[in-house]
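Batch manifest, entry 17 of 40.
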Amino acid sequence: MASPVRRAAAVLALLSLLLLPVAAVAAPVAVTVRGVGDEQLLKNILASLKIAQQSTADLSAGQLRRLHKRAPEQIKAAMLPFGYYSAQVKNSQLEKKGDAWLAEYEVDPGQPVRVASLSVEVTGQGREHEALRNLAAAFPLQPGSQLKDSEYEKGKKQILNAALTAGYIRAKFTESRVEVRAKEGKAAIRLCLESGPLHVFGETASSQYILKPELLQRYLSYRPGDVYSLSALNRLQADLYSTGYFSQVTVEPKLPSAEESGSEVPVELHLAPAPKNRYSLGGGYGTDTGARGSIGWKNRMINSYGHRPSFNIQLAEKGSKAAGGYEIPVPILDLRYDTLSFDTLYSEESWANTEISQYDIGATLKHNAPKYQFGAGLEYLHETYSVGDTDDSTWMLMPNAFLTMILAENRVSTDHGIRVSGSVRGAQAPYFASTSFVQFRVGGKAIFSPFEKWRLIGRGSIGATTMESINELPPSLRFYAGGDQSVRGYGYKALGPKDDSGRVVGGQYLTEGSVELERKLSGIWSVAAFYDIGNAYDTIDARLQQGVGVGVRMSLPFGQIRLDLADPISEGSFSVRIHLTLGADL
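Output type: structure tokens
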């Protein structure tokens, strides 16, 4: 009697012999479907064909023939969701060519079924609601449209979303029917929506102790009695996160059960405080500032009123500063973006033949929304300076205002976007300043992508100061041109009116412009070519200086590192200046 081991070996050997014929006929199969012009329809057919799904597998001749036989019915079934109810497969072939199999199917789609009638009825409390009155007009399938299952389902979702947005959160279809008369090529759609009761917001409460309850309530975009909206709750959660006060925000609506008759939806907020203190340490290098380092501290919320103090020190080769601030949320237009800030700054800076030391303190009421930022304030400046042959000091109390508009989906890495800004400030002697002046500045930057991997970047700026003599204005308020963000090819603040000894002292007016063409290479790298023009001046017939150059860009999550080589072509002789910058696009 054979041992169990020998019997097992014999069985394995027999199985191997039986599988040899299968392996011998195994071959790849290619599937072709003709007569279908709609790309989406063709994709759906190929996705439904079992023989196409197995085209990369090892199949026997028998298996392929069985799959080929079922293919016509699978093709016709795949065409039904697109309205083709009379499709026929006229010709189908399966043949072997060399080592490969070829399956071909000739399809006659026939005439698609079209919508003959559409009826959308609303019952319940929402029957007379404005948003639910004419739902049929916005339905994707209108009389005469080709019947498509995807459009039908899309239309149903639109109706339910309209009801939900209108506050009917219990809305549901009591009838949704499509009657197809395939021989006539017609379909009748009937939908009946039961709206259920209208739901409104109730009270919003929280057991949190982080913010004053009255302050927390001001972040709500709705009030008790307003129509219930899921988007309003999503916005509330995003707004509370954006304050920086909370590490966790859970917005929980207390929806009544289907058996309850109540229509109010109370909301509970579950909030966890964020760590109060945030510290920062940074370093970098720029051709305008030289090597620099900074250290900072910010308290996200020093009290239950949401106040935020901060302090920052920056040390650099060409200037250092220390700044402190205190920010208070104020509910004027929108508590999410409105603040009253008190700021103080001490700074020292030097460039070329100019040295300044200034102390600045001010208060600003501002609105800092994502697209629009504007505000007004009052600033006291005391500045001691040495410029050219002049050593002096000045003081002034300056009202100021600013406005900025930024339209872009991504401000860090922008394909299409624009930024426009303007500011004005001034002072009046002798009671509020040692000299009188009014100064304004407007500027902008635009980025467009006319072709794939190409960006066209333009920027411009103009400024003007009205006063008797520019010599009475401290250097920090004068206009200069040249540097990384101005006319490249020239040094930082190297362009402007000069004194008798030929040293740049700054001007009353400013004009700057730039055009840059950038080409993305691969990964994070891109190259650019640019043309800059501009100058600071005291008379309108001043000559604008020009610079041209090329650069390399490295795109990172927080912005671009830009290395530019620029030639000041207005100088007549060729020379190259290196500019290195880091920052977001807008």
